[in-house]
Amino acid sequence: MSTLLSGYESSDDESPVVAGPSSIATTGLAQPDIDEEEDDEKLEEEARKDAFGLSTSNGQQNGSSRSNKVAKTAVESAPDVLKEDPNGASLAIITRPTDKVVNVNLTYEDMMRPVAGPVDPFNQRKNKGMNTLSGHVEEQSMDNYSFAMAQRTFDVHGYSLNPSINSNEHKPIVGSLNNAYQNGYLSIENMKPSKSERKETKRKRGDKGDLSVVDGENSYLGPWAEWKGDKDVDPVIEEEAEEWREEKKRRDEAQQVAKDKMKVARDEKSIFHGKELTDYAGRTYMHIPTDTDVKLNPTDGAPPPNAYLPERCIHTWTGHNKGVSAIRLFPRSGHLLLSGSMDTKVKLWDVYHEGNCLRTFLGHAQAVKDVAFNNSGSQFLSASYDRHIKLWDTETGKCIQAFSNGKLPNVVKFNPDYDKQHVFLAGMQDKKIIQYDLRQREIIQTYDQHLGPVNSITFVDENRRFVTTSDDKTIRGWDYDIPVVIKYIAEPYMHSMPAVTKHPSDKYFACQSMDNQILVYSADGSFRQNKKKRFAGHTVAGYACAIGFSPDGKYISSGTGTGDLVFWDWKNGKIQKRLKAHKEVVIDHCWLPNEHSKLVTASWDGLIKLWT
Questions:
Q1: What is the count of structural domains for the chain?
Q2: What residues pair up with 175 in beta bridges, in sequence order?
């Protein structure tokens, strides 16, 4: 370092001699000789590489065999100054958001490079819809006219120019290359029909008509004239025509059979199966028997008997050819049993004597859906899939009245009030509840708030209100004779409840839910669910199995889709007994009103059984 800094003196000495604006002459360096030009060039090259002469000093310290002759060198004290900043705005490739001009001419290769860089995390959802199974959707900006022409060209000729590729060497085609080559790669807007095509089009056009004629033959049609051959029908293949004629014949025969059935159904009649219509005292089967061990006509206010769970079957009624859909016991006494079946028949059975079929009611063309007694039991209603509701006389078997509004009835129910026995309600498949007056023979009210077929009707609150359930998974409360919903019950977890039964205390009603449980609601007008009472453990999903209560209200029972009859304790909700009753679905059952432990079950196997 002494050699390098020999030209510098202390602060008391004079300043060194400046050889130039950017160099300082060193005093301790000798002048180079002419004979040693090669050595001088090497020294100058090393001096340029190392401005401070570190390599020279290191070489001397390491004891290298370098020549003792020292060449003159210059020390660059000023830094290099660039004329333009490469990161300045004038040369920047990446512009600021406020810049409107790019000062650098980018090359074609740079501009056509694929997009590279990190993925935008905020555009993932936006780009998700652009991914397809066969490729990737690209955004293309073009005017509506160009897009319409490209789309029309592709629809008509099967090809179109690809707007995403701009190439002058070849035409980028999407679709059929052969069609594009034949048409000269033209779009449909640049194509002109040939002379023969124009003649063919003109030949097919209809005559415009005479401008002076408004109607009739040769009337003026102008551009609205039909093309010749528009009304021509292609020849029908003979085999297809024969199949169509056979299908039409089968359809006509089926319609005729349906008409014959409806004609037979209008001829309502009944068949009495007993020996005599009256006994020695002139009494019919309508008379409540008094020769039984049980008092069948109890006085009002008498407490119901204590119920016990049944254990065995003591009688089986057979007579229906198909499944039984509904059964009803005679009001108050229960000495008669009414059953409706899928074999279109309604039968009346004896309960306490021989257990025979007393009368068969014929008049429906299709399966019977529901039956209902009035308060006295002198009349009953039958609803069928033939879209008819019929009123029958229980004693004589005569059809008093038939009613139909063209819709399928699901449930029928008389008004329980004794002064309204001429009015009944019917829940229909068309989401409505109709109120029919038998005296006026017309519909006097319609309740139409449900969104699905109506399945059940239950009168509550001293018959001033009624509750309906539907396939729309809701429960609706109504004021009688007012078609406005006063209570609407609908929860996301609710299922359809096709069967509803009222508790003997009239304080609750139980609903058969299609998620294999029985839910209980209050019947005092609030219709609040009693969440403490829930009965489960049976399988009824898909079947409208009826619910039953023992006369004293101690037990609640339900049929199942597997042919079982399940009993729960009303207070604690525990299963008390499971009885294998039938081979198929136990669709309905009734507790005898004056017996301790007897009930009747009906199943789709066509049997009706009495249990005790």
A1: 2
A2: 159
